[in-house]
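no rush on this but wanted to send it before i forget. theres a chain ive been looking at and ive put its sequence and its fold in C-alpha cell form underneath. please have a look and point out which stretches look like helix strand or loop to you. thanks a lot i owe you, the record is right below:
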Amino acid sequence: MQKRNSFAWLLFIFMLLSLIFTACGGSNEQPHPSDQPTYDSNPNVLNIIAGSEQQLILDRIVVPWCKTQGITCKYTLKGSVDQARLLRAGNSPWDVFWFASSVFQQLGDQGGKLKDVKDMFITPLVYAGWKSEMQKLGFVGRDVSITDILDAVENQKTNAWLTNPTQSNSGATVYFGFLNHFAGNGPGVPLTMQQLNSPKVAQGITRFVRSLKQTPSSSGTLMNGCVTDPSCKTVFTYEALVIEKNQELIKQGHEPFYAVYPKESLAIADAPMGFLPHAQNASSKEQTFLKLQQFILSADAQKQVEQLGRRPASSVGLSLPNADTTVFNPDWGIKATLKQQLLTYPAPDVIDAALSKYQTSYRRPVHIVYCLDGSGSMGVNDGWNQLKQASQVLFKQNVAAGYYLQTNPQDLTSVMIFNGNIAYGPDGEWTVAGNDPNKLSQLNDNITAQSPNDGTNFYVCLQRAADLFKQQGNEDRKRLVVLMTDGQSDTDGRDTALAAIKASRAPVICVPFGSDADTSQLKDIANQTEGTVTAKENLIDSLREAIGYR
C-alpha cells in the first residue's frame, strides 16, 4: 500500500527538515491545551503530540478512556512535518507521537527513538463537494476520473479548494497525482524529472493549480473554512474528514458532502503511533502507553474508530466488509471497498523540484499586501520581536525556501506598518515587483529597523491596500492581504475601507496576536472579504499559515 512508496517521501521530507533546521531553527505553535508542555514524568501522565486529523479520535475515544483508567492524557496538535522536526531535534516533552502518515514518522525517527510503532487506522484521499453540486456536475453514482475533475474545475463549472501542496500532506498527494496524470503515467509509474520539466506537464499543472479557489495550509482549516464559506463548492481532502463533517452537518439539518475517489490517483494516510522513552520512569511510562495503544487497537475501540469514519488498522487492503452504512454512507459517495492501485511517488529530487516549482512557476502570481501592526503594545508583549523573526521567513528567500514559501517571479509584494496611521510603506523600498532576493531581503531590513509606537487603526492600512490594488486594475494576479494585529482597532474610516477592500476582491487573512486582539473585528473583515482568521499564539507560525494561501 502507501508504505511501498514511502522511501521517496522519506528522503524528500528529510531534505525539507534539513532546510528548516538550517535556515529557521524551528518554531512553535499553540493550537490546543498544551503546546511545548513541561515534561511530566508521572507514569500515569501521557503527553501526546498528534496531527489535526486525530483530534476527534483524541476527544471522543482517547481522552475519555484515559480518565476511566486514572491516566491523564494531554495533547498538542501539530502538522506531520513539525512533528518529525521536533522528534529529530530531541528533548521533546512528549511521550507519544501520533503522525498522519508513516512516511513522516519514519523520517522523524531516523535514530530509531520511537518504540512500539503501530498504525492506528487508515483513510484514503477523496474529491468531495456539496451533494447538490456533485449532482450538478454529474458525479453522483458513477466512477469519476481525473479528467472529469479537471474539466469541471478548469472550465469553471465549479470551484475547488486544495490544501497548499507545499504545506500539507493531503495537498501534496493530490498535486503529485495530477502531475502524474499530465505526464501520461498510470498510478504505478512515477513521475520523472524529464517529465516534470516538459512543457506538457508544466502547462497542465499550471492550468489546474491556477484554477483553484483557495489553498489553505491544513486539512482541518480547509474543511472548516469550506463549511463556513458559502462560496466553497468542492474540496480535495481525506475520506475521514468528509464523514466527520457529514455527521455534524446531518445533525444540524444541513446538506452533506458527497465524495468520489479519483481514478488513477488513490493514496492513504495510516496514522502511526509510537512511544518516545525519557530518562525518568521510561519503563512505567511505556507500560501506560502500551495500555493506551492496545486499547485503541482493541475490537471495541476500532469499532468506535470506524464509527468516526476511519477504516480500522486491521482492514485488508481497502476492503471494509459489513461496514456501517450510516457512517460509510453510500448516499455520501463513500465506498467501503476500493479496488484501485495506489499512487507511486517520484524520486526525492523530483519531489523537491516539483514543490519548488509550485511556488516559483505553477501557482498564480499574487499581489500581496502585508498590513503589520507597529503600535506601542507590540513592543511590550514580545510581538515585535516575533514579527522580526517571522519577517525572515516571509522575505529572506533562503529561509523561505526551507518552508517552500518562495516568492514567484511575477509576484508583487507590498509591506505597510501601521499604528494610528500608516507609519511606514508602501512606497519605495517597501514594495517589490518579482522575486529579487536582495530587494525582498530589504523588506525584512525595513521592518527590523523600526520600533513600535502609538495606537492602532488597521482600517487605514486596508484602505491603502485597496488603493494599491486599484492602481493595478488590469493585473492577472491573485490578490491577498495579510493583516496582523495585537489589539483592538480604532474605527475611523472602517466602512469606507471595508467597502474598498471588498470591491478589490482581495481576501484578507487576519492574524491576531495575544489576548488583546479583537477577533470580532477580524472575523468581520474575514467574512466580508472571503478571508479567514488564523488563531495561533505563535506569530511566526501564524504568518507562515497566512502566506500559505498564496
Summary: The first helix runs from residue 6 to 23. The chain is about 40% helix and 15% strand. The chain has three domains: 2-122+269-316, 124-268+342-352, 364-547.
